[in-house]
């Protein structure tokens, strides 16, 4: 039986090693609001992390990279501008419920350093911004806070593309882990995270367990239709 947790705190500044510790204990954050919860309604929350030294691109992930070779990828300190806000407005049209009002639901007004060091990984197609991912950097780990993309290019799997670039970048930085956020024990729209590879999940009792040791957690592959 997993323990029931529903906790939060506020912090405007967290040091890199402390971010590592918080992620390892199942914490996430939106701006200065830190939270962790083991249940979301009837669903069981699964914090996830990728063991970067063991990660290898799957065939489907290689296809995502190949078909997006014309996409320009940039990395810079985390930012929001008018282009990002317009992209966010397009992205949220994908959802029919729980629609966020603002990108600042997820990041602070000073995202490059509040509450920690954060990067913007951006995608550009024919000179136009088509995707952005906010990637936190700790001492030994990185974590994706939020990402959005142009729904007109959904067939390109831009959400997966940004995750893959985040993984490869984190490994190039010499990090040990990449945290893609939560999924659920039960089937959900977040099941694509369960197929990343070299994956572990947190059992809410202090243990990170190998995904492949629990085949019941791995969903069937849907091909490349997601994101």
TrEMBL record:
Entry GO MF terms: transferase activity
N-end aminoacyl transferase N-terminal domain residues: 13-63
Transmembrane segments: none
Keywords assigned: Acyltransferase, Transferase
Residues covered by the N-end rule aminoacyl transferase C-terminal domain: 90-199
UniProt superkingdom: Bacteria
RNA-binding keyword on record: no
Protein name (Swiss-Prot/TrEMBL): Arginine-tRNA-protein transferase
Organism of this sequence: Meiothermus taiwanensis WR-220
